[in-house]
Every structure is written in structure tokens, then in C-alpha cells.
Design brief:
- This protein has 219 residues and is α/β, with parallel strands linked by helices.
- It has helices spanning 20-25, 28-33, 50-54, 70-81, 91-94, 101-107, 204-217; strands spanning 6-14, 36-41, 58-64, 85-89, 109-113, 119-125, 141-145, 149-152, 157-164, 174-184, 187-192.
- The protein is built from 7 helices and 11 strands.
- The strands form 2 sheets. The protein has a 9-stranded mixed beta sheet, sandwiched between helices. A two-stranded antiparallel ribbon has the order 5-8.
- A hairpin with a 2-residue loop joins strand 10 (174-184) and strand 11.
- The longest helix has 14 residues, at 204-217.
């Protein structure tokens, strides 16, 4: 019965370069197949509906850049604190609402830059977290896409990383978080920096960890 189903809210919009409609559509069948009643919103005003958010088990956000009001931001954070899950990928979750520090604290990270163009690079799973359900049984893999440099919260649980070599701007190599989870009160948050374009999700490991991340974050 639909009344017994878990509820997912997909919030999409912002900069069209990240194809929020096309890419979120990749995951709607997956959510429905896993028993979710899926609602899609193309406005952030949904974050001010406390009753709806309280009945939502998972928010999947794909909203790059843009602005969020204090009421919207506070509503989302309060819902996650109370147990609603939040998940997303790439700029749709960590290049959102750049002026809102509270939102950045919620997600545990913020996009700062990426080298020009798409780069072939390795994503390394954190061996100490190999039993985490988001990455269990997966191995290191390669992608050809944007490589994000992010500022992150020390309280996140990093599951996968990428490497930046030393160059004329950076005096030493840097290991950068690429996939992480965190808790926020009673809620869970999943973030993957991978997912600029639809074919990023053709990489089996990217698709698997993203789908697992949605389920992990859900109430």
C-alpha cells in the first residue's frame, strides 16, 4: 500500500549545466523499485513545509548554485536533525547556496574549484571504512569527469578520496575527500562529489555507491 511506503522527495533545479532533471530521472526508478513513494519538487519552497518534510524519509537534492532563504535553509536543517535523510551528488549538493553557512555545515562540505575540463583520475576507497554499506565490496575505480576541490568539515566520515598532485600553486600533494557521510542530529547525510554528467553514472562503482548512499541516508 502506498500509505506504507517510505517517502522520497527529489528537489531539483538551479544551474542547468548539471542537468538536474536528466540526472535525477536516472534514480527515480531505483527509488520506486525500493518501495519509495517519490515526489518531485522544482522549488525550494518545499523546504518550508514542515509537515511534508516530517513525513519524508529521504530528500534527494540536485540544485546547483542558486540562493536559499533563511526559512528554507532552517526548514531543511530542522527536518534532517529530526531524522529525514539528505543525499546528493556533485554540485547539486556541495555547490549549492554558496552564501549560506548553515547549509554548508549541514552537508559537511563546500565546492571551491575544479581543474579545467574533464580529467581521467582514480577514486580510492578508504580501506579503514571498507565495511561501510555504501562502499562494501567495491574496489578503487577510475572516472573521466570533473575533479572537485572541496572544503570539508572534520566530522564527516570519508569513504573515498582523490589525489591532487603538487603544482605551482600547491606545495605538496593533497588527498581530497570525494565521497562521505555524516550525521546531523537524528538524520543522515550522504555526499558524492562525482556526477557532473549523466555518463558518470555509467561507471558501475559510481552508480552503485550513489544508489547505496541514497538508501543509507534514508530514515
Amino acid at each position: 500500500m502506498i500509505s506504507d511506503a517510505r517517502r522520497a522527495l527529489v528537489v531539483r533545479g538551479g544551474w542547468e549545466g548539471h542537468q538536474p532533471v536528466t540526472i535525477t530521472e536516472l534514480f527515480l526508478p531505483f527509488l520506486r523499485d525500493h518501495g519509495y513513494d517519490v515526489r518531485v519538487s522544482e522549488t525550494l519552497d518545499v523546504y518550508t513545509d514542515a509537515e511534508l518534510l516530517a513525513a519524508t524519509d529521504l530528500v534527494v537534492q540536485c540544485w546547483t548554485m542558486g540562493e536559499i532563504t533563511q526559512e528554507q535553509s532552517t526548514g531543511l536543517a530542522a527536518a534532517v536533525r529530526a531524522g529525514t535523510g539528505l543525499a546528493g551528488w556533485h554540485g547539486g549538493i556541495v555547490d549549492s547556496f554558496r552564501g549560506d553557512v548553515g547549509y554548508q555545515l549541514l552537508t559537511g562540505g563546500q565546492f571551491l574549484m575544479h581543474p579545467s575540463g574533464f580529467l581521467d583520475h582514480e577514486v580510492a576507497l578508504v580501506k579503514e571504512r571498507a565495511d561501510h554499506p555504501v562502499i562494501a565490496g567495491l574496489t578503487d575505480f577510475r572516472v573521466h569527469t570533473e575533479k572537485y576541490w572541496v572544503a570539508t568539515d572534520p566530522l564527516i566520515d570519508v569513504l573515498a578520496t582523490t589525489e591532487f598532485a603538487a603544482d605551482e600553486e600547491r606545495s605538496r600533494p593533497v588527498t581530497m575527500p570525494a565521497v562521505w557521510t555524516r550525521t546531523w542530529g537524528a538524520g543522515r547525510v550522504f555526499v558524492s562529489a562525482i556526477g557532473h554528467k549523466p555518463d558518470d553514472f555509467d561507471v558501475p562503482e559510481v552508480r552503485a555507491l550513489t544508489e547505496r548512499g541514497l538508501l543509507w541516508a534514508s530514515r
